[in-house]
């Protein structure tokens, strides 16, 4: 885990954060949501924080507030939460992960669609992740380079590395 933060590469931490969030929600029961989480990197150490509250909205607000208050004083930080993406008159569950490095202007985000587990072994990752830099969706060579680095961050998560492709390969097994 320290190797991810020691590089101060936001795309590696972004992948690691996405992996940890997916691992956290993969076995959830029906109605359970991802507890918003953050990784804070300071002086070569990476700390995991979770933001619990009465509602998901309050937990997300707590997490965002914490990140906004600290992102300019820590070396690197990331934040992940669950959300819904509206497209073509339907809503899809997504994990949203973001990452910042102190004194850098670029802000990285990834949106990964997924099918919730619902306590029935249904968890699966849908499609490729959507990658954003400063809120702009990436495409072409830039997108491919970022996907490769995010993939390395995912593979650096020892618990998730062997599961990630299974979750992606699971797409046809449990049609929605």
Account of the protein in words:
35% of the residues lie in helices and 32% in strands. With 176 residues, it is an alpha+beta fold. It has one domain (2-170). Strands 2-1-3-4-5-6-7 form a 7-stranded antiparallel sheet, with helices on both faces.
Question: What are the main properties of this structure?
Answer:
disordered C terminus, seven-stranded antiparallel sheet, 7 strands, 35% helix, alpha+beta, 176 residues, 5 helices, single chain
Structural class: alpha+beta
Q: Fraction of residues in helices?
A: 25-40%
Give the helix tally: 5
Number of domains: 1
Major sheet strand order = 2-1-3-4-5-6-7
Strand content: 25-35%
Mean of pLDDT: 91
Computed over alpha carbons, the radius of gyration is 15 Å
Low-confidence stretches: 172-176
Number of strands: 7
Cα distance, first to last residue? 34 Å
Please trace the helix and strand order, writing H or E for each element: HHEEHEEEEEHH
Largest sheet geometry: 7 strands, antiparallel
Mass-distribution shape? globular
């Amino acid at each position: 885990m320290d190797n991810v933060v020691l590089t101060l590469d936001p795309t590696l931490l972004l992948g690691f954060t996405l992996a940890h969030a997916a691992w956290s929600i993969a076995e959830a029961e029906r109605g359970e949501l991802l507890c918003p989480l953050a990784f804070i990197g300071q002086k070569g150490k990476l700390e995991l924080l979770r933001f619990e509250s009465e509602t998901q909205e309050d937990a997300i607000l707590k997490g965002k507030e914490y990140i906004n208050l600290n992102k300019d004083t820590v070396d690197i930080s990331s934040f992940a939460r669950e959300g819904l993406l509206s497209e073509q008159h339907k809503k899809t569950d997504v994990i949203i992960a973001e990452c910042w490095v102190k004194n850098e202007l670029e802000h990285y985000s990834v949106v990964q669609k997924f099918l919730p587990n619902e306590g029935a072994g249904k968890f699966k990752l849908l499609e490729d992740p959507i990658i954003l830099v400063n809120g702009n969706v990436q495409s072409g060579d830039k997108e491919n380079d970022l996907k490769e680095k995010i993939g390395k961050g995912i593979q650096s998560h020892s618990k998730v590395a062997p599961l990630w492709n299974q979750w992606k390969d699971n797409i046809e097994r449990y049609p929605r």
